[in-house]
Design goal:
Elements (H helix, E strand, L loop, with lengths): L3 H13 L2 H8 L3 H15 L4 E2 L6 E2 L1 H29 L3 E7 L1 H18 L3 E7 L2 H9 L5 E5 L10 E10 L1 E5 L12 H4 L4 E3 L4 H10 L10 E4 L3 H9 L4 E4 L5 H5 L3 E3 L7 E9 L8 H11 L4
Parallel strand pairs: 3-4, 3-5, 8-9, 8-10
Antiparallel strand pairs: 1-2, 5-12, 6-12, 7-10, 7-11
Keywords: DNA-binding, Transcription, Transcription regulation
GO molecular function, one term: transcription cis-regulatory region binding
Protein name: Putative transcriptional regulator
Length: 300
């Protein structure tokens, strides 16, 4: 039977094209890695690499074996995770990704309810834009993300995408903002004050520009862009900036009288999906997290 470590070393050399880099990635010495590859070749009776070229290249038979090796390594990793999950039961950690908008609109209530139902579990939360979250998910550095549907692929063989009820976007300012006294308020009235918001997609900004008859999206000038919704809220409450967000992200501030919603309807929906990998073993607590997401995002 082949040694999984040797197959792992084979895949690393194939990826890097360099024994020294592969050894560094494997956290072993270069002679140890070279010996591992040589042993694998001797056991298989095949030459896997052409060492006469730089960077080192796979031989034709090595190329044929690489995809199968990668599948075996993924299966081994999934098996290891499954055994670990069985041993822990409903204990452990889930790594969850939100966009700035989804974290502010629903992140807190989802995580709070999930924690109450799973007291032995913990969550490591990442906030970033959807493309970055997808990369982390595919690299298996996140277990689940709630991303913007506009930035997700329409179809994917390796992603399971479950829609979440949309939320209508809104436009907000601090309490006592000069615009609140404007009886002839329109979107163009906001432009001199500039905006604060998350890293919104060009598609969304184009739609806003078209909706309000602007020359193009560049007329919507952002003074602050951040994936930290708390920073955006505080900046708007302490300035004349205008916040483009969702009502859920500023619900508490409006209820407390610190912020106000401007009477302009962008008519743009926040479209979210919960996304997981189809090709990896899920933690037993994942099904409960999905159930909580469904319960906490139902239209009120």
């Amino acid at each position: 039977m082949f040694n999984l470590n040797q197959l792992y070393h084979f895949a690393l050399v194939a990826e890097t094209g360099n024994f020294a880099q592969a050894a560094k990635r494997a956290h072993i010495t270069q002679p140890a890695l070279s010996n591992s590859i040589r042993t694998l070749e001797e056991r298989a009776g095949l030459k896997l690499f052409d060492r006469s070229e730089r960077p080192i290249k796979l031989t034709p038979v090595g190329r044929n074996l690489l995809s199968r090796t990668e599948s075996l390594l993924k299966e081994a990793k999934n098996f290891e995770k499954e055994v670990m999950y069985l041993g822990r039961g409903m204990a452990g950690e889930l790594r969850i990704g939100f966009t700035a908008q989804s974290s502010g609109s629903m992140g807190g209530r989802i995580l709070g309810e999930w924690q109450a139902q799973n007291p032995k579990m913990s969550a490591d939360v990442t906030v970033a834009d959807t493309p970055a979250l997808i990369e982390l998910l595919k690299a298996e550095q996140l277990d689940l993300i709630i991303g913007d549907g506009r930035d997700l692929p329409s179809h994917s063989s390796d992603l399971e995408m479950i829609p979440i009820p949309p939320e209508v976007g809104g436009i907000f300012c601090r309490a006592n903002h000069p615009l609140l006294k404007d009886d002839d308020l329109n979107f163009k009235s906001l432009l001199p004050y500039r905006f604060a918001g998350a890293h919104l997609s060009e598609t969304l900004l184009d739609a806003l520009a078209d909706r309000f008859n602007l020359r193009d999206r560049h007329e919507i000038h952002f003074a602050i862009k951040s994936d930290n919704i708390a920073v955006l809220r505080d900046a708007v409450m302490h300035s004349d900036l205008i916040l483009l967000s969702t009502p859920g992200a500023v619900h508490n501030e409006i209820a407390a009288g610190f912020m106000a919603k401007l009477p302009i309807n962008p008519e743009e929906l926040a479209i979210w999906f919960s996304v997981t990998l189809k090709t990896t073993v899920a933690h037993p607590a994942m099904s409960n997290l999905r159930k909580v997401i469904e319960e906490k995002t139902k239209p009120q």
